[in-house]
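Re: duplicated header lines in exported structure tokens

Our pipeline writes sequence and tokens for each protein into one text file. With two proteins the header for the second block appears twice in some exports. Here is an export where it did not happen, for reference. First protein block:
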Amino acid sequence: MTVSSPYDKLLAGGSDLGLFNTELDRLRTGLKRRVNADRENLEQGLAQLVLTLIELLRQLMERQAIHRIDAGTLSPEEIERIGRVFMALVERMDELKEAFGLEDEDLNLNLGPLGNLM
């Protein structure tokens, strides 16, 4: 009676797993680069994500405000107040980016085939 290996049962082509091993090694290497759970990198990554979301929302709100200004639906006082709020938000964002060692480019996430977020 001949005992067959589990690989022979799994793969009709035999036990040559070189192609799969190479791909697994490549995936492991990629995961090691991406998943780094030390505290400093984790905090920086979380700060980057949160600041990216805030920047995206800021840009959307700014576009909406410009649209309302162009449409004439805001009073001069409202326009002044919105301008002050956006200036304060930009200053605070700059402080937070500096605190976490981030640049504007760090807040622009690459979405693969969709392109950059901002």
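Second protein block, exported in the same file:
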Amino acid sequence: MSIFTKIIRGEIPCHRVYEDEHVLAFLDIAPLSPGHTLVIPKEEKATLDELSDESAAAIGRVLPRICRAVMQATGATAYNVLQNNGAAAHQAVFHVHFHVIPKTADGRGLGIGWNAGRLDPAAGRELAAKIAAGVTPGR
């Protein structure tokens, strides 16, 4: 059981900004900037690929609303949505969660380094075909 499960159950307090049957959103207690909000499914799954279609759809409906509300409340004009899966991808709490992180005028928010490579066209066709073959509706 993760700390987020304890928050969902009300065992640990939080600053809730939204809640429905499937989703809970609350302020991060270690924010990168004012308004840094976590959006989590109530379904207990560690990574996004494990999440049910129902929970994923609920997150998808709510996430844009939370982003708009955070922007309005903070006055930020930009933000990042961050979602990590697995320890190697810097996931620290093993319950699916999305960070909505406002970027403030003073530069507070998420800093990102992007070490981009190049996609070889032949390798891209092969990889795209493999990924497409693995996409299973309703799974």
